[in-house]
Design a protein that fits this description.
This protein has six helices and 15 strands. It is an alpha+beta fold. It has two domains: about 220 residues, Creatinase/methionine aminopeptidase superfamily (Creatine Amidinohydrolase), CATH 3.90.230; about 60 residues, Winged helix-like DNA-binding domain superfamily/Winged helix DNA-binding domain (Arc Repressor Mutant, subunit A). The strands form four sheets. The chain has a five-stranded antiparallel beta sheet with strand order 8-7-9-14-15. A hairpin with a 2-residue loop joins strand 14 and strand 15. The chain is globular.
Amino acid sequence: MEEKVKNHYIEAGKVVQEARKIAREESTPGTKLYDIADKIEQHIRDNGLKPAFPVNTSLNNEAAHYTPSPKSKKTLSKDDVLKIDIGAHSEGYIADSALTINPSDKHEHVIKAVEKVLKEALDFVEPGITVGELGTHIENQVPDEFTPIHNLTGHYVDRYEQHAGISIPNIANANNHVIQKGDAIAVEPFITTGKGNVREGREGNIYKQEKKRVRSRTERRVMKKVNSFNNLPFTDRWLKLNPKEKMVFKKLVKKQAIHSYPVLRDTEGSIVAQAEHTILVGVDGGENIITTKR
């Protein structure tokens, strides 16, 4: 890994470390999820970087892919379990991190469990291990009272690519891809009190450009705004669309020129916890740099 590339990852990681602190400070009962997400994203911009994707604020049995709209009145209650997934990029090089918060500490046991699973996984990562070995190790760290979510994974990251081709399952698997020095990976265990199989629900206000032609002038104008995110996920609240453009945006989603991410949920009544850090493998004299660990 080139030194300047490494420094971009580290710079993004430092801003995400600070954003994690803001996430904890802002996540108090009665606070709107929109305000939490907005303050985190604004912090990233205020430090000269850009969000790598909209801040995810997923509650309780939701695992991922929800970000609030400005009109959303959804607030955090004291017993909610809130997953906050944060990403920033420096010239396209992404630091990706997630934490789980429960204001009342009623569900602290599941949060501590997933944080321990992540810590053990981070300690295990080194050049030469396979993705399969890492997944097996992660699954073996999950306490018997919880279940790893088998259809959500960690992932490689690359320039302007949040999910860069290679997934890192949180369960035993046969993937013999060898993790090498200089790889940038996001280790991201999810554990649950439910079945461990998330399903797609309603749209979550997170989108990504698809490579499809558009025709009308308004469609091209909307897609020009979408193109500014360099194929990274975005949310419609970043676009500042006029009423006509909002209608066109919905049409573009319907005809799949823009992909809409659905909210991912485990079984009703279950609790999902998530933890995540980004690792630069073996780049510091053979040791890992965990860019987002605070």
